[in-house]
Amino acid sequence: MTTPLVEMRDMSISFGGVHAVEKVSVDLHPGEVVGLLGHNGAGKSTLIKMLSGAYRPDAGQIFINGEPATIENPRDAKKYGIETIYQTLALADNIDAAGNLFLGREIMGPMGTLDDGAMEAATREVMNRLNPNFKKFKAPVSALSGGQRQSVAIARAIHFNAKILIMDEPTAALGPQETQQVAELILQLKKEGIGIFLISHDLHDVFDLSDRVSVMKNGKLVGTCRTQDVTKDEVLGMIILGKQPGAQSTQEEAALH
To answer: What pTM was computed for the model?
Structure first.
């Protein structure tokens, strides 16, 4: 196997004496999607917020490309090529795709004015790579579909050289056609060698898109499995029972239905 893009070892964090994440280790390789599954409150978002710089861990180590990494805030995370795409997408509804792509990082012309042409050209280039069917470059993002809005958010991340993407519930509130669009975006990112942590409580979405799944329950890691080696029922058992597939009894599995 290649050196992991990310290794999180024995990560722990507590809030008010409650262990939100306790000694959890996960990793991610180039061109791989790792699905993080678990009920609300299982600790999956908290774990990933330690990678994105939103939380400082109480204990544990993060390695990027095999080297120890110090991530104390979101700016540190960006330096390591880590970008987070939240469920809300954090887009400015009233401006177009290029305006969103370069929001806060605008390209200026020699006269100190915005270089709209350069920003639109860069946006078209990255979009053509990511989603060749995207045509609404002049429309405000409020006029775009959910799948197209995801395209803009992802394009913004990869244009600024993200190598590690954290996607938080990327298909929540999307219809089947838009969910398929997001799936195609994820496949394209994989081809480019980008590693993706996919946080979701939708077992079916994650199962279809992930190479491996890591399941958390009550702040602890139940286990990590290659998707091709487990059934959806076994993963459901990991989420609900907190047990590895081999430790689930036939009666327990039957009770899940």
So the answer is: 0.87
- Which residues fall within 8 angstroms of residue 118, CB to CB, at 6 or more apart? 107, 109
Q: Quote the Cα angle for 25-43-195, to 5°.
A: 55
In terms of C-beta distances under 8 Å and separation of at least 24 residues, what long-range contacts does 150-154 make, across chains too? 150/85, 150/89, 150/174, 150/178, 150/181, 150/182, 150/185, 151/127, 151/181, 151/185, 152/89, 152/91, 152/97, 152/100, 152/101, 153/85, 153/89, 153/90, 153/91, 153/100, 154/85, 154/130, 154/185, 154/189
Q: Is 192 helix (H, G, I), strand (E, B) or coil?
A: coil
Taking only the tens place, the pLDDT of each residue in 57-108 is: 999 999 999 999 999 999 999 999 999 887 666 788 899 999 999 988 888 9
Between CA 191 and CA 74 the distance in angstroms is 26
Domains of the chain: 6-92+162-255 (3.40.50.300)
